[in-house]
Amino acid sequence: MDPTGICEVFEDSIQIAPDDITFTLNPGEVDEPQEENKVLLEKIISRYKVGKAAIQGSLKLSWNVIRGWKWKEIEDGLLQFTFAHRNDAMNVLARRPWFVCGALLVIMPWPAWLTPQEVRFDKTPIWSMWRVFPLSTATCPT
């Protein structure tokens, strides 16, 4: 092919800069990573220090069906739990809240791209049962 033919191919092309390109990703269009997350982080919320033996003993009784889990303390009050199977980790997350010796364990999944200090422990699901709910305090019409 002669050089003049190549010039004809690019004759109608337009040059654009990277700043000229915009795109939007909707949450439904983004594929979540398919990595196996078997690691959970837990923060102990308590007035008192909870010992390692108390943590191990209490969780061993609570998680006796789960095989192959281990834990270590990363820093004061921050624990890393590793499970043999992802389903076991998801089961522990689904059955929150967990308590050890009266202390609340705030359990969060640990995405691989975050450091332990970047994981937020400001929320945890807690269920409650109300026997009497005062309808007079409701803000919607009854």
Automatic annotation (TrEMBL):
Residues 51-118 form the DUF4283 domain. It comes from the Eukaryota. It holds the Pfam family DUF4283. This is DUF4283 domain-containing protein. It comes from Cannabis sativa (Hemp). The lineage of its organism: Eukaryota, Viridiplantae, Streptophyta, Embryophyta, Tracheophyta.
